[in-house]
Amino acid sequence: MTKPPVPHRLRVLSYNVHRWGDDREALARVVKACAPDVMLVQEAPTWWGTRRKRREMAATFGLRYLAGQARNAILVADGIEVAESLHWRIWRPFVRRRLRLIATQLPGGAVGGRVMLGSAQLALVVCHLGLHILGRQHELEQVLRGCRSFGTPYLLVGDLNETPEGPVWKRLADEGLIDLGADAGPTFSSSNPHRRIDGALLSPGISGRLLPIPAELSADLPKASDHLPLLIELHL
């Protein structure tokens, strides 16, 4: 069998899909219109029948489920190869406190894999940081160790649960990562965007930019998820 040609540009969609629990038809229209080669999912469906539900979700997008960890997942289009997928659990405080409230947190994790872009290798990594402000910083260090373990330039995306003034974003800048969404505007909530808590960050060695979400999706975005998607184009 002839292998598909290696792409010189790659479309990557980072999206918190809110557990695939909102308007599934609207979500499918959004993903299909964005036409990603790779989709990096946060809040993928979980619990009973996790893999089955993720495969079903991917099929509605015209993609296939490749790998996942905790509530993160990698979906790919036909002809796109993501190799050596790594998934790891990350330590997270079991409870968080906000004002006088105490709430539990689900276990954290991250997942990534290698792709070829022209003649170069790079890694794609997706994470979802927690709601505990100090816990997020410890989680991020574990995520960054995983990113560096690939030994290649990488794209890190995810729901960071923090605005750019926070310590997590400062740590990402100190790591030398480039914030692709610095001028892109807020990502949450989709019905009333007022906070930028979703990130797309590149290590040195590859180039990329955020692409605009097609304007015809404006009615579908608030129905599809509580977050807005980030559509990224990577190139040499």
TrEMBL record:
Alphabetic keyword roster: Endonuclease, Exonuclease, Hydrolase, Nuclease
Domain Endonuclease/exonuclease/phosphatase: 13-227
A Pfam family annotated for this UniProt entry: Exo_endo_phos
Taxonomic superkingdom: Bacteria
Presence of the UniProt keyword Hydrolase in the record: yes
GO MF, any single term: endonuclease activity
InterPro entries reported for this sequence: Endo/exonu/phosph_ase_sf, Endo/exonuclease/phosphatase
Protein name: Endonuclease/exonuclease/phosphatase
Organism expressing this protein natively: Kribbella antibiotica
